[in-house]
Structures are given as structure tokens and as C-alpha cells.
Amino acid sequence: MLEIEIKQGSIIDVEADVLVNAANSLGYMGGGVAGFLKRVCGNEVENEAIEKAPIPVGKAVLTSAGKLKDKFKGIIHAPTMERPAMSIPPENVFKATSGALEEADKNGFKKIAIPGLGTGVGGVDKKTAAELMIKAILEFKPKNLKKVILVDIDPEMVKEFQIALSQKK
User: What's the predicted TM-score (pTM) here?
Assistant: First the structure.
């Protein structure tokens, strides 16, 4: 059973082995969390993701953490959409969360930080996204992974994570 911690703040301020980027299948890092991570980690992270594309929704790929390599062992790019700035069906949030957990576990990571997925340009409402992410985490059977940190700068997303988790316990 994975430990779940919920925090409000920047994803780069958490103590985790690896961060999740809400990606698209092409690996481009444009807006939202992806754009932020590209700015702080450097273009090399986006270039690595593009090299591993196309990444199907439900799968994920690991890249370096670029300029944050002293703090994190990598970034997991988990697509919620095929192309940048697409509206997505809510089930893509569940698939992306599962894909990110799978990739982290496969690579032997213990702690993963995941922001709200699909709630920006994807257009999934925060309540639905939180419920689907919690469901994916609770259903996941880890071999290595011990802890999931759900982190978001948006207080409303954080509140929805808390509500979704409390309803599942």
C-alpha cells in the first residue's frame, strides 16, 4: 500500500526521487507544469522526451532532471493527451497516473511527486481528476515505490485531492 501525502506548493520544492510532468505524446513541454519544468530544468529535458516520443497515453518515459539533477533522479513524462493543448476524456487522467507510477516503480524509485493531471488545457475538472488520480494510486501494486506526493500550487486542486483521499479511506 502506497503512502499518500498531499501538499500545496511547487513540485520542485518537495522531497522526492522523481517528478511527474503532465505531458503530451509528442514530448513537447509548453504550458502549465511542463512549461515550468522546462524553464527550471532546461531544454535538454524536453529534447530527451521528444527523442522518446511518441509516448502513448497510459505509458510514460523517464528523462534526466536537467539542471535539477542534484535534487531529483529524473522526470517522468506521463501523457494525458496525444498532441499539445487538446481537451481530453477524464479516463486519460487515470491512465497517465497509472503510467507514471508504473515507470517510477520499474526504475526502482521510492518517492514520486505528481501534480494535478489533465486539469489545465486538458479541461478535466479538478474534482474528477483528483478522484481518478487517487483511484489509480490506490489500485497500484508497487514493488519499489513507497510514497506518492500529490502536490499542486492550486489550493483548489489540493483541496480536491484531500476530499478524494478522505472518501476512499
Answer: 0.97
